[in-house]
């Protein structure tokens, strides 16, 4: 256990967290003028507010959807797995090498997974095909030099992106003259130490199918957006295999990922594309950490980005591109935003969590930050309270930069999760400082419940509806105007 000390949130008194704890909210709340009940959508237990977890007067940048309905299947699963915690999520016994691991993706129905390497980081692009498309699903592995092999059955035409990644061509659409691509880079959880699990691959494959409009997704109460085949944006999901602790602790892993992200953003500027960062659990922490870094440090007028824009036709176009910032959103699914576990709500959530424990999360955080014997001596350790690993502790100015860049911060949390208090605190800080976003807070749900969705009929209903919420959020981010 790390030594507890006063954090920036505690210096503010933590009064808002204590008085509006999501885990202690009553099941039924008095209706407020700013609260939109989902009863008209057939789910009385859903409440949407644009003010916060407890309805407040005045406008807010944050829209929160609160749920408290729990399926019988989930209640049964929760009672079965709680005695097994935290063995279900134990880190791997053998550490991974200190670099981005090359993965072995499973074959997924109607999905082609393309493996590429860029800036020494392995990436896995998920391309969804309709059930009647005639395309062959499978995995397209890269050669050792990073070049692509051919699929058994190719797509029709392709253009090249990054280091040879082949993608479907832009199609002309009304209004823009081309189809704008929005790439979502996903970081999987695993205690900062493990590669993606089977649940991660299944979740991303299903989400890719949903986004492509090839699945009849479940509806999410309060959302009425439908799949628009003529949308201006094409959304692509890309799993990022990041360097893992303890061989690559945060100081090294984040260094590699920042270099990678800078190049990815340069390419997006060049191609007039947008991107989002997304992750679950420890992966969400990394996504948020990288997002804050990009807002503070990325400059599209850097030499690499400027060289990429050399062929633009006019000075006006170059100046417009120089101001372009391609990151539109960061999405956290059950991610830890405070590695110190300093919220006074953590002990209460620890008693309710059926997957994690506070002790396990502290152990994992210490390994990630290099506070264990397995850290290579050439890499520095990082304090758990450092904003570069605990995004909640970024100063107000960093959040205000998110606002000025028009970056959305979204979240999905279940309140029976020891990591939820830090996520809720981040949401409140975003609200306080005017950062926009949409949040799903599900009373009584477990850690990373969207990954427990299973298929269309297996798994928990709450997970499927959370995935629909994420799909809707992604569509909204992809359609943001430049």
Automatic annotation (TrEMBL):
The keyword Cytoplasm does not apply. Gene3D superfamilies: alpha/beta hydrolase. GO terms for molecular function: hydrolase activity. Residues 1-59, 87-106, 133-175 are annotated as: Disordered. Keywords: Hydrolase. Residues 142-171 have a biased composition (Basic and acidic residues). Pfam families: Abhydrolase_3 (PF07859). Signal peptide: none annotated. SUPFAM superfamilies: alpha/beta-Hydrolases (SSF53474). Residues 233-450 form the Alpha/beta hydrolase fold-3 domain. PANTHER family: AB HYDROLASE SUPERFAMILY PROTEIN C4A8.06C (PTHR48081), ALPHA_BETA HYDROLASE FOLD-3 DOMAIN-CONTAINING PROTEIN-RELATED (PTHR48081:SF8). This is Alpha/beta hydrolase fold-3 domain-containing protein. It comes from Cladophialophora chaetospira.
């Amino acid at each position: 256990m790390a030594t507890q000390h006063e954090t920036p949130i505690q210096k503010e008194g933590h009064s808002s967290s204590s008085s509006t704890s999501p885990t202690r909210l009553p099941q039924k709340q008095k209706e407020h003028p700013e609260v939109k009940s989902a009863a008209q959508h057939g789910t009385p237990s859903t409440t949407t507010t644009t003010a916060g977890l407890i309805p407040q007067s005045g406008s807010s940048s944050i829209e929160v959807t609160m749920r408290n309905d729990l399926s019988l299947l989930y209640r049964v699963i929760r009672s079965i797995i709680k005695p097994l915690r935290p063995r279900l999520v134990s880190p791997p016994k053998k550490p991974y090498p200190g670099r981005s691991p090359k993965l072995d993706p499973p074959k997924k129905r109607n999905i082609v997974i393309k493996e590429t390497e860029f800036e020494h980081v392995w990436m896995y692009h998920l391309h969804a095909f309709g059930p009647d498309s005639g395309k062959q699903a499978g995995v397209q592995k890269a050669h050792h030099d990073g070049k692509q092999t051919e699929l058994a059955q190719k797509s029709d035409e392709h253009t090249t992106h990054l280091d040879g990644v082949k993608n479907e061509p832009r199609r002309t659409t009304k209004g823009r003259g081309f189809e704008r691509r929005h790439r979502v880079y996903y970081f999987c959880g695993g205690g900062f130490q493990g590669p993606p699990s089977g649940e991660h691959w299944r979740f991303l494959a299903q989400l890719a199918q949903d986004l492509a409009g090839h699945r009849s997704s479940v509806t999410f109460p309060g959302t009425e957006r439908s799949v628009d085949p003529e949308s201006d944006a094409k959304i692509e999901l890309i799993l990022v295999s990041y360097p893992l602790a303890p061989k690559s602790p945060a100081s090294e892993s984040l260094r590699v990922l920042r270099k990678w992200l800078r190049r990815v953003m340069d390419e997006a500027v060049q191609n007039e594309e947008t991107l989002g960062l997304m992750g679950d659990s420890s992966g969400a922490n990394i996504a948020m950490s990288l997002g804050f870094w990009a807002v503070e440090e990325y400059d599209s007028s850097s030499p690499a980005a400027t060289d990429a824009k050399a062929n633009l036709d006019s000075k006006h176009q170059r100046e417009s591109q120089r101001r372009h910032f391609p990151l539109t959103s960061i999405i956290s699914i059950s991610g830890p935003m405070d590695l110190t576990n300093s919220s006074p709500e953590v002990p209460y959530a620890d008693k309710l969590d059926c997957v994690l424990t506070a002790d396990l999360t502290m152990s994992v955080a210490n390994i990630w930050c290099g506070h264990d014997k397995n850290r290579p001596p050439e890499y520095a350790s990082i304090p758990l309270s450092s904003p570069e690993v605990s995004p909640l502790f970024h100063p107000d100015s960093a959040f205000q930069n998110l606002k000025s860049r028009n970056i959305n911060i979204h979240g999905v949390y279940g309140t029976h999760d020891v990591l939820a208090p830090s996520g809720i605190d981040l949401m409140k800080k975003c609200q306080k400082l005017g950062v926009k976003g949409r949040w799903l807070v599900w009373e009584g749900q477990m850690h990373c419940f969207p990954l427990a969705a299973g298929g269309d009929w297996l798994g928990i209903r709450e997970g499927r509806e959370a995935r629909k919420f994420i799909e809707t959020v992604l569509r909204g981010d992809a359609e943001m105007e430049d």
